[in-house]
TrEMBL record:
GO MF: DNA binding
Pfam families: Rv2175c_C, Rv2175c_wHTH
InterPro entries for the chain: Rv2175c_C (IPR041098), Rv2175c_wHTH (IPR048576)
Protein's recorded name: Helix-turn-helix domain-containing protein
Source species: Streptomyces buecherae
Amino acid sequence: MTEIDAKTDALVPAWLTLPDIAELLDVEVTRVRQLVKEGQLIAVRRGENRALHVPAEFIGDGRIVKGLVGTLTLLRDDGFTDEEMLEWLFTADPTLPGTPAQALRENRGTEVKRRAQALAV
């Protein structure tokens, strides 16, 4: 987990704390920490108390958005840092349209993964 810069913070429309996510997923906070540790979620330190936060768009309908974990794995395998992954996920892509994070929420994960794989070339 790293400090977040203003550029990335400005790209992400909304953030959730780990306790917020635990409540949404109906699990203990320790489980959310484990998801972060396993790379299934990206958490960054932000705010005055430097608490861990996860982009709100990563959670939907009481679970992690479908396709997110696989996309994060692809990007990580391509050598992306957490900040670079967030920047990529929340930067508009006119070919999608929208951001990759929005496309994942709209169940268009195949398109997002295809673009993530193309980055490795």
